[in-house]
Amino acid sequence: MIKKSLFILLIGLMSIVLVACGGKKSGSDSGEATESVVVGDDIKGATELSFWTFASLHMEFFEEAAKRWNEENSDKPIKLKVETYPYDQMHNNLLLALQSGKGAPDIVDIEISRFPNYLQGEPQLLPMNQFVEPEIDNFVKARLEIYSKDGQYYGMPTHVGASVMYYNKEIMDEAGVDIDSIKTWDDYVEAGKQVVAKTGKMMTNVTTGDYIPMWAMISQQGSDWFDKNGEVTVDSPENIKALQFLHDLVYVHKIAELTPGGQPHAEEYYAYMNEGGAASISMPLWYMGRFIDYMPDLKNKMVIRPMPAWEPGGFRSAGMGGTGTVVTNQTKHPDLAKEFLAFAKLSKEANIKLWTVLGFDPPRWDVWESDEVKQDNKFYQYFGNDIFDTLLEIREEINPVNITSQTPEVQNEINTVTFDSVLRQQTKTAEEALKEAADKIRSNKQ
User: Does residue 129 contact residue 123 with C-beta atoms inside 8 Å?
Assistant: First the structure.
């Protein structure tokens, strides 16, 4: 049954996931793809496969993969029809197609918050275990587990989404703070007090419209919005601790202010940071692109380090966001579709391309030290050459997240109600607000 929670508008998450890019073909009607292209149309005898996505950059990634496939597999070429649709339209049409038994593509991207909807009951997706299991030790396993059910791996990950701390080294140096001395959140607070005292700048900002930073902080503690059985844990002690800490950064320690524009994808925030407004921000590695595209004045000033841990020896990262690419059970060419998907997302070369083409942290960690990944590019030129040194430090410190069909509902509640009452209005304590949110989510569970 399609629940109302499936249709909550994911504005915040969509702004994170959907990377704007020029299109190849524009559709004027709501039922048309906004972009489409065919790879291998000129190859005689090529087997046609269809691929749907909601992100233009993913489209370009699969185009490139199809071209490489045809160059390397002349005995079984493919004609890949790639189509990009608006986020909600694509996911809703896919769900209806799988439920009705017709109309689904061979291969499709499913964004992480929507993925549980396609695992309910008997998944209408094909397991990829024959390709995953021989390579699983080379992957950050948590990023495969989030797209699995009952030991079957359905979704092939697009990135790790490792949360890190971005520091403005210019500000930190002016304050006399050694970035690498910050090991715990307590260290971070003390460093922040020094930054404020010496520079007049804020150490960081606290978002009121994006729950990703808080989610990373609770994941570090081994907590989540839901437990492994899908039970609501929004009001767990760890979650309360994280929200109270965010509150205290602003109102007790006075080393942070509320994020201009409410969230780190706002134009106001980009302008604020370009002017040196704060010394740090914690976001996933894919946020590098936001710095390059919207905060050019910070080039050669920002460095990437692990997140502070809650206690010495604690986890210093979390995996946030993601897209799992699947083969549907409606494909007429299951073996070829699965083999191509493994080629496009699981192979060493594919994971190198996830970095060189998309700028994402590849889920396959054994390519992080490859010569191809080390080649100079715009990310190294902006942040320095130690990006993957940080990733190698934290690769075993990323917990899997528990996504359910109510995850969009949690996102909406935290972003629009909880943060407002705790961080903006200060009318409720972290404990009161999260218990209220948890009760509401539990009451809506079907």
Answer: no
